[in-house]
Amino acid sequence: MAGLSGIPIIILKEGSKRDTGKDAQRRNIAAAKAVADSIRTTLGPKGMDKMLVDSMGDATVTNDGATILRELDVDNPVAKMIVEVAKAQDDEIGDGTTTAVIIAGELLKKAETLIDQNVHPTVIVSGYRQAQTKAQAILKDMSIDVSGDSKTLTKIAQTAMTGKGIELFMKKLSQIAVDAATAVAKTERVDLEESVKIVKITGGSIEDSEINYGLVLEKERLDPMMPKKVEKARILLLEGTLEIKKLSTDAKITITDAQEMASFKQGEEKVMADQVGAIVRAGANVVFCQKGIGQAASHYLAKNGILAARRVKDEDMKLLALATGAKIVGDVMTVTAKDLGSCKLVEERKLGKDKNMIFVEGCTNAKAVSVILHGSTEVFLDEMERALEDALYVVLDVIRSGRIVPGGGAPEIRVAEKIRQYATTLTGREQLAVSAFADAVESIPLALAENAGFDPVNTLMALRSKHQQGLQTYGLNIKTGDPSDMLAEGVVEPLKVKTQAIKSATEAATMILRVDDVIAAKQEGLKPKPGQSPSDYTRPPY
Questions:
Q1: Which residue among 59, 166, 367, 528 is least packed, with the fewest CB closer than 10 Å?
Q2: Do 223 and 298 touch, CB atoms closer than 8 A?
């Protein structure tokens, strides 16, 4: 770096790398496009799958964009930014990740062309933001209110599941998704991860999958003398413990004869008997304990006909509280009847050869539910779980907002057409950026057609023609390759998925375009310890 009188001034450490101006922008854009290209072929009902193999050799086969990006071990900082945007889309909406990343990559690709034409990145960013605001209004205008329409919720779930390899059983699973989302939507602020538990069981048919208005615990009763089945259950959720507290390491007990030993033991047993007595007086006949239950307590519980399980996970305790209406109690001696939850049935059942589970069923007004999935292999079950989660999120989005848009690329064609019209009203170079935004949005129907084996250009022209005729609900029929009315076909998506995808893509693209200087410090290798040779240091640890 030159200073006064041409004397160079060095401000960076030796080995640092710096890219400025168009070079930095091109490198950043190339990294973002690489991420988008990696998942482009997964879009749509006929998208291809990716096999992701981790460092341990375990393979994941999926076409879920969020899962692919989460598993990618990216090192480039710009690629990481794109992945983070995709994660934010998935966390916020639960679907639309692939769409957001593809549009972001296309926006940057169009921006690169404009930069080569000497359009300043600031002008491009301004144009993109204007177009994004306009796109939100266009999508809202074309959306349809379906509040209270349960049939539409099923169609929404089926659209989200299409292409996940479970089409033969989609009717069954989509109904499960609608029932589960409807049940937990009763609470004001719903977090699906804290309200819906998905239990995967290898073996059986997908048709055996079901929703349980309660909870399924991967636990078994503590004592074989306890009842396996409790009807009209009154449930105690205990955060504390039901066992004798261990003495500290420096504690001393002086016992001089056998009588004192017997008295000491009787004292311990009385403590346990009193605690179980408190449970019995409160009216509980089922106990789920987050911590330990000792042998003496287990004996007294069984003697009183109480079914109990210990070491229940914290998240399961919270789900049980939501499902049964029970309060989580810290001190068993303070429990009252008001603290107990209720359900029709608690039962231990054997699933498979040697797996016992406890089913909590028939909870009135359950605010948490379980979904039990059956499948032939763990890989297939994992993909079923991902498909179900996508469906749960989009159904919940529609229950909240009540608005949908047609699928099959129809919203993107409509947005592109209207934004091109909007671009003609602008002056200056921002018009070029707005037009480029319209072209980028059309990358979604192009990818849908290409992944389905149809000619993308012919498909795009046919869709544009229909929309110019005022048929704004027409999108790509994935079976025939021709434009069809997506509402009539039952292919619909939540409005929020589309608006958030375009917003996320625009934010990612503009954030990257505003970077014109990349300064990378030299990566320092770890030095060997004293007495350790470099060759020994590079050897992998065992």
A1: 59
A2: yes
Q: Check if 98 is active-site.
A: yes
> In the numeric block, which tokens belong to residue 3?
């200073």
| Cβ-contact 498, 138 below 8 angstroms | no
- 64 catalytic residue (yes or no): yes
Per-residue tokens: 130 = 């204007």
By three-state DSSP, how is residue 18 classified?
Answer: strand
Would you give the distance in Å from CA 489 to the centre of its chain?
27
Distance CA 369, CA 164 (A): 23
Residue with tokens 């004293």: 530
The CA distance from 419 to 442, in Å, is 11
Q: Is 527 helix (H, G, I), strand (E, B) or coil?
A: coil
Which one of the listed residues 60, 67, 98, 459 is annotated catalytic? Answer: 98
Determine how many CB atoms are found less than 10 A away from the CB of residue 86: 28
Assign 3-class secondary structure to 409-444. Answer: CHHHHHHHHHHHHHHCCCCCCHHHHHHHHHHHHCHH
Side chain identity at residue 257, one-letter code = D
The span from the CA of 144 to the CA of 406, in Å, is: 9
Task: Of 370, 365, 335, 326, give the one whose Cα is nearest residue 235.
Answer: 326
Cβ burial, residue 394 (10 Å; 0-12/13-18/19+): buried
Domains and CATH numbers, the chain: 18-145+405-520 (1.10.560.10), 147-205+369-401 (3.30.260.10), 214-365 (3.50.7.10)
Q: Residue 502 and residue 135: Cα distance in Å, rounded?
A: 8
CB-based contact 266:244 (threshold 8 Å)? no
Q: Which of 90, 95, 316, 390 is catalytic?
A: 390
Report the C-alpha gap between 445 and 366 in whole angstroms. Answer: 41
Closest CA to 458 of 435, 476, 440, 471: 476
Please pick, among 42, 60, 64, 159, the residue that the annotation labels catalytic.
64
* Residues ≥6 apart with Cβ < 8 Å to 106: 36, 439, 440, 441, 443
Catalytic residue among 67, 97, 459, 510: 97
| DSSP tag of 242 | B
In tens, the pLDDT along 238-272 reads 988 887 665 445 555 555 555 555 554 555 577 78
Q: Is 390 considered catalytic here?
A: yes
Question: How far lies 293's CA from each of 283, 287, 290, 334, in Å?
Answer: 19, 10, 9, 17
Q: Is the pTM higher than 0.90?
A: no
CB 506 within 8 A of CB 107: yes
What is the tens place of the pLDDT at every residue in 333-378?
888 999 999 999 999 988 766 678 899 998 888 888 888 888 878 8
And the tokens for 402?
A: 């009540």
Alpha helices, H only, 117-195: 121-142, 150-161, 170-184, 192-195
Element (H, E) at 50: strand 50-53
